[in-house]
Write a structure and sequence with these properties.
By secondary structure, the protein is an alpha/beta fold. 51% of the residues lie in helices and 15% in strands. Strand 8 (286-293) and strand 9 form a beta hairpin.
Length: 532
């Protein structure tokens, strides 16, 4: 697969939040909200902090071996066994089990994790680094996870199942989507291969988390990626003390709220808003938040009620029935993994910045935060269209109207700017003002008002001239629209819209290898990949 890549700063891309770009640039205002910088030195500091925390590696490894079963082999098995060593640390990313891997950035996050682990293995050979994909299988937001796009067609899984998406099962509706996807992908060189992979794992009656686990493992096992399904009684038992404190005393809510106020005062948007209790009750098709009303604990929208003693007994006997929300999920992750780096998107970085004081309270090591890699994939046919218009790929990060204006400015044969003439008009009115002032000083303001009105009308004329000239470039405008719609679907990033199935169907497993080769470690830049 023949591809070349170029990079540009995230800030220049103009599509990322202020808090994300300020974090990358390590501006002073953001520094109070994280512990270690995303550098080798910051990672060394994170390792030293992690060494002092009593991670229960035995329970972690036993859980992983149970989850993998017969799939455990090769580099993957070596990595899991290595987690028993106090000199082994994880590099982690997290994501929900979107059907068929969801948007492209699901793949990018995982590959970034693998690449950074490999980079650190070379830079700090005295330690071992294991890439981990932490599956957010308890997410109940089906509308966010139930669809993919294949070449602008939205395929939606219609199901009446409720509760955690990871616990839902593959049904006839999901199998129907595979048939539709096959019709679109089978004509491509590796189309049958990728559809066959989906059919192998997404089998009727299998849970979404198991199907996703198996598919992601098939795609990345050669890299030694460890996949963790945290929906486990043994793992949740390790965080029971924090869960109990949240239920009884609501300390996480207060700490995260105070940090959120400071973040807001520093000029940033707050990403996550804590509730008094930050746990869901997870059982039999429900994942609903736990609320306290008087002396009782209730499960919102469910006919379940507990006394304090009953709820604590439930936590001790069935920890798997308690599911952390966005406020406690990261804490739970860091309690069960020997983790030193968390790789996430802009939104994830924003809410992790709210966690610092909460981590301090529970004496849990706070990881280095790294913004995940972002890619724009440009196929050869689209590169040719861009070149024919005289643009670069980077130009298409500009809004469509700015691109058209740039084209018109370059290609038009007529003068459509009045800049020079406007200067002359202003000079003329200045001479009028002086002449009128000599007669009556009060006339000066009147002349200034006349000038402003005239200049405004001339500026409007300039805009009309530009619009008229743009109409002469209607064909080019259609081409610009088509290119931008392809590269930035629905005016958003390609990686948030497109699914990997099309790209795999076109290029096969080489697509995964190509992305790995062009993935960055700690460089924190946007990557444009041009492929033939």
């Amino acid at each position: 697969m023949d591809c070349i890549s170029t990079r540009l700063p995230y800030r220049q891309a103009g599509v990322f939040s202020k808090i994300a770009t300020d974090y990358i640039d390590q501006v002073e205002a953001i520094r109070p909200f994280f512990h270690y910088s995303p550098t080798i030195n910051g990672i060394r500091q994170s390792i030293e902090a992690r060494k002092k925390y009593p991670t229960n590696r035995k329970v972690l490894v036993e859980t992983l071996k149970t989850q993998y079963g017969d799939l455990l082999k090769g580099k993957l098995a070596e990595n899991i066994d290595a987690l028993l060593s106090p000199d082994t640390f994880t590099i982690t990313t997290a994501h929900q089990p979107n059907i068929f891997t969801g948007p492209l950035y699901f793949i990018y996050k995982i590959l970034h994790t693998i690449k950074l682990a490999a980079h650190l293995q070379s830079s700090l050979p005295q330690y071992r680094f294991v890439p981990v994909y932490y599956m957010g299988s308890e997410d109940a937001d089906l509308e966010e996870l139930n669809h993919i796009y294949i070449e602008d067609e939205k395929l939606v899984w219609q199901t009446r199942q409720t509760g955690a998406v990871g616990r839902m099962i593959v049904d006839a509706g999901l199998l129907k989507l595979i048939d539709i996807a096959e019709g679109q992908l089978a004509v491509l060189p590796a189309g049958k291969e990728i559809v066959g992979l989906i059919r192998k794992f997404f089998v009727k009656g299998v849970s979404i988390q198991v199907a996703t686990f198996q598919m992601v493992n098939a795609l990345f096992e050669e890299f030694g990626l460890v996949i963790l399904i945290p929906d486990s009684a043994d793992l949740k038992k390790l965080a029971a003390a924090v869960f109990e404190d949240d239920l009884l005393h609501q300390h996480p809510s207060g700490l995260v709220s105070k940090t959120a106020e400071k973040i807001q005062s520093a000029g940033y948007k707050v990403q996550a808003h804590p509730r008094d209790i930050n746990l869901f009750y997870l059982e039999k098709g429900i994942r609903e938040r736990i609320v306290k009303e008087g002396n009782k604990y209730k499960v919102h929208s469910a006919a379940l009620e507990f006394s304090e003693k009953e709820l604590l007994d439930e936590l001790r006997e069935h920890p798997e029935r308690f599911s952390p929300n966005v406020i406690l999920r990261g804490m739970f992750q860091e309690m069960i993994l020997p983790n030193i780096v968390f790789i996430g998107g802009g939104g994830e970085i924003a809410y992790w910045l709210q966690y610092g004081e909460m981590f301090n309270r529970y004496h849990v090591p706070y990881p280095v935060l790294v913004l995940r890699n972002s890619f724009l994939i440009v196929e050869k046919s689209w590169q040719q269209r861009i070149s024919k218009l005289g643009f670069t790929i980077e130009d298409f990060f500009l809004p469509e109207q700015e691109l058209l204006k740039k084209l018109v400015d370059k290609e038009t044969k007529h003068a459509i700017k009045l800049n020079g003439s406007l200067s002359q008009v202003e000079q003329l009115y200045e001479s009028f003002r002086k002449q009128a002032s000599a007669v009556d000083i009060t006339l000066s303001k009147h002349v200034v008002a006349l000038k402003e009105k005239a200049v405004y009308r001339l500026q409007e004329l300039e805009k009309k001239m530009l619009r008229a000239e743009k109409r002469k470039f209607s064909d080019q405008q259609r081409q610009i629209s088509a290119i931008r719609a392809k590269l930035f679907p629905q005016n958003g990033l390609q990686e948030r819209h497109d699914n990997m199935l099309y790209y795999y169907a076109k290029w096969g497993k080489e697509f995964i290898q190509m992305l790995f080769e062009h993935s960055l470690g700690l460089e924190q830049e946007f990557t444009v990949v041009s492929c033939k």
